[in-house]
Write a structure and sequence with these properties.
This protein is an all-alpha fold and 562 residues long. Helices cover 67% and strands 1% of the residues. A two-stranded antiparallel ribbon has the order 1-2. β1 and β2 form a beta hairpin. α18 (328-340) runs parallel beside α20.
């Protein structure tokens, strides 16, 4: 499952970088005062008074370029921007060009280039942006990359040039530079074609991250985890840097930190997770929808569920109506986290039930399946919600579900005892036509679902019993032949139990023997259903054989462990 957090990072960081809750001094509208000299906010970025340079000009900048910077700083509309391009673009130096490009990203909404492309001089100006990359310092490179991402301008040639020059200038990158350029590359998924660049930046992070502000550190954590690059030692330094400013970290930084570790499958220090959770509990009212979902998903994935924090976040989500603003991904992540934690928070799932009924028509199939699964795992059967999902799945849409999603959905309906005979009939027929697509994990879910609707007689299956038998025989033969391999010990136990429940102990025994010869999946849990049946039917020979096999399996496992 993909995780779409750039928007969360994007929106929050836009606020953090461009606004302040502190009252500005009287001269802030014109520039920054330093002694008797006033530098415009834009000029400061070109390297004035110790601020990192956008580019370096050996002979110094022309006075005309400083004047252009001032004019750019006062631009507030696309029309004014176009006027400056028409009148002064030919005189731009690289500093003016980068500042103008960054300004363009602020003037239009995210990923909306139409207004700029309508400007007669935009194409020529953009050509200047591309041409000046080779003269830029890290600050200039990061500004161009960040503005490109804000504009949604995914020009691979430009990104490749930025990466190449970035490698050459790697030693001069600071924390903010790394954060902005890495964020942009991650948002564009420009990773494989820039592997050398990412390696160079990863080498710089451990030293530079400690100099960064909280936004820089948060962006670095998110960007590298999204790109799935960077060694564990780098993430440890990110954690250390974050904890040093723990009392300043907002919810987004806290959630990004644990989310990065979860995404990279890295186990953070338990003490670090604890203090992050404690800090989060003091900021509940400041959590937005992305922070809630990412925090809970990450903690569940890492196995560090803080039930008090989960409860507080759930109450906050319901009380403030955050759930109404969830993207489908965030809703399914949050629901999954609570299902993993076995925490059936009633108000939260009431809200999610309403959310599903309102929006299921626009969900991707993965989110439909995941949300249905979470309700079923927690034994929350909301009839209106499952009716909505069932309606969504009918009418040919079952073919749109990927195999794992399809079987997960089947299992969820069966688990809650959904009484829709036609739905099960449709799903059984579709499953018979897609047997070559199923994996071990999906087959175990499908088998369990088929077992529930037949053995528990939730619906009248007489009309499609033959289809069910065909599926059951296929599943058995696929597992016995080794064409499909069960994903883990839990899937093995579920499959053996299903055949026992269906009154097919011989098939269950054959599957157990196959799993025993394959090694690893014939656990004590897998033996339990057959042993119970053998005892129930007073079959001492089978009981003795199963106990002997179980002892041998445990001894073999013990030897392997030793």
């Amino acid at each position: 499952m993909e995780y779409d957090v750039p928007l969360a990072c994007d929106l929050q960081l836009e606020v953090n970088y461009n606004t302040s809750t502190v009252a500005a001094p009287p001269w802030s509208a014109y520039g920054k005062r330093n002694g008797s000299t006033i530098f415009s906010a834009v000029e400061v970025h070109t390297g004035a008074k110790g601020v990192p340079h956008i580019f370096t000009e050996k002979g110094g900048r022309r006075q005309e370029c400083f004047t252009l910077d001032r004019r750019l700083h006062n631009v507030s509309s696309v029309r004014e921007f176009e006027r400056i391009l028409a009148q002064g673009m030919q005189s731009f130096d690289p500093g003016n060009t980068v500042n103008a490009f960054a300004l363009a990203a602020k003037l239009v909404e995210d990923a909306s280039l139409s207004a700029l492309k309508a400007c007669p001089h935009w194409d020529s100006f953009y050509g200047q942006v591309v041409d000046c990359v080779g003269r830029l310092e890290p600050r200039g490179l990061s500004m161009v990359a960040y503005a490109s991402a804000k504009l949604g301008l995914a020009d691979e040639n430009l990104l490749a040039s930025l990466a190449q020059v970035g490698i050459q200038r790697a030693q001069d990158f600071g924390a903010m530079d790394i954060a902005k350029i890495a964020w942009a590359f991650a948002k564009f998924d420009f990773v494989d074609k820039a592997s050398e660049f990412w390696e160079a930046m990863a080498d710089r992070v451990p030293d530079k991250v400690h100099d960064g502000k909280m936004n820089d550190v948060s962006m670095i954590a998110w960007s590298f985890a999204t790109a799935e690059v960077g060694p564990e030692s780098m993430y440890r330094e990110i954690t250390t840097a974050s904890l040093r400013m723990l009392d300043e970290l907002p919810p987004q930084s806290l959630s990004n930190l644990v989310w990065a570790h979860a995404s990279m499958q890295l186990a953070p220090d338990e003490g670090a997770v604890h203090v992050v959770c404690q800090r989060a509990k003091t900021l509940i009212k400041d959590f937005v929808e992305f922070d809630v979902a990412n925090m809970c998903w990450a903690l569940a994935t890492l196995g560090f569920v803080d039930y008090e924090l989960f409860d507080l976040l759930a109450e906050h989500t319901v009380a403030t109506g955050l759930w109404k603003r969830f993207p489908a991904l965030s809703a399914s992540q949050l629901a999954w986290a609570f299902a993993f934690a076995k925490f059936a928070h009633a108000p939260l799932f009431d809200a999610l039930a309403d959310y599903i009924c309102r929006h299921v028509a626009v969900f991707d199939t993965q989110h439909v399946a995941m949300l249905a699964w979470t309700f079923a795992v927690l034994d929350i059967n909301v009839p209106t919600t499952f009716k909505t999902i069932a309606t969504f799945a009918k009418g040919g849409k079952l073919w749109g579900f990927r195999p794992d999603e399809f079987c997960c959905l089947f299992w969820a309906f069966a688990r809650v005892g959904w009484p829709d005979e036609q739905l099960y009939w449709d799903m059984t027929q579709v499953a018979n036509l897609r047997t070559d697509e199923f994996t071990g994990g999906s087959l175990a879910n499908l088998l369990s679902g088929l077992t529930s609707i037949r053995a528990e007689r939730q619906v009248n299956t007489s009309g499609f019993d033959r289809d069910i038998d065909t599926l059951l025989d296929f599943i058995l033969q696929a597992l016995l032949s080794g064409r499909v391999v069960l994903s883990d010990a839990e899937a093995a136990h579920m499959s053996i139990r299903s055949f026992c429940t269906l009154g097919r102990p011989g098939d269950a025994d054959a599957l157990l023997q196959k799993l025993g010869s394959s090694g690893g999946l014939a656990t004590p849990q897998a033996f339990a259903p057959l042993l119970l049946l053998a005892v129930r039917f007073s079959d001492p020979l089978r009981v003795a054989r199963l106990w002997a096999q179980l002892a041998a399996a445990m001894a073999a496992a013990g030897c392997a462990i030793l």
